[in-house]
Write a structure and sequence with these properties.
single chain, 186 residues, alpha+beta, seven-stranded mixed sheet, three-stranded antiparallel sheet, elongated
């Protein structure tokens, strides 16, 4: 008997936690189905995206998972990945003075726009892998990143920085700490 209960519990769990699209979430009588798209216009984010854990009233569609920064005297590069639950703007490393170059999304060239003084891409729903590079005369004091980035690695002159200095605004201080200073000097 317990095996049967376990089986039913597993089936229920799979069905209960299987993601569904907004159209499947919204049930409407047959005569009203042609109006579903019109009614849901501008409300897709509320239905498809996740609420913040600490503020259920705030919706988030962009989930940046990892960012790898490689910094050297004359240049830098980055690899960024994440997931979008609904089309959204993705913030890239850099700012209006340190602008990313040769940016690709899933190995295809991408066009960036400035939003709030920072480089952004508009991407569709799904997983993404973004690559890009920077050029500079000397290593900048800091590099701006999305503060919501989950995993972040920093290498300066091919040396890993174990505890990079990142403030709440998402600024990676490239000259902060003895390990970073030593890596820049080498």
């Amino acid at each position: 008997m317990s095996g049967k209960c376990l089986f039913l519990f597993l089936i229920f769990s799979i069905l209960a936690f299987t993601p569904v699209s907004a159209a499947e979430k919204f049930q409407a009588p047959e005569p009203l189905k042609p109006w579903v798209d019109w009614v849901l216009h501008d409300h897709q984010e509320e239905l498809l995206c996740s609420a913040n854990y600490d503020n259920p009233g705030k919706i988030r569609c962009d989930w940046p998972t990892s960012l790898d920064l490689e910094i050297s005297a004359g240049r830098g590069s980055f690899r960024q990945s994440g997931h979008l639950q609904y089309q959204s703007w993705i913030q890239l490393p850099g700012n209006e003075r340190i602008w990313p170059e040769k940016v690709t999304v899933n190995s295809k060239p991408a066009l960036m726009l400035m939003r709030h003084g920072l480089p952004h891409l508009r991407l569709e729903t799904g997983d993404y892998r973004i690559n890009g590079s920077f050029r500079w005369k000397s290593v900048p004091e800091f590099l701006q990143i999305d503060p919501a980035t989950g995993l972040f690695t920093l290498r300066i002159n091919n040396k890993p920085i174990e505890f990079p200095s990142v403030d709440q605004a998402g600024r990676v201080w490239l000259h902060a700490g003895k390990q970073a200073e030593k890596a820049i000097e080498d």
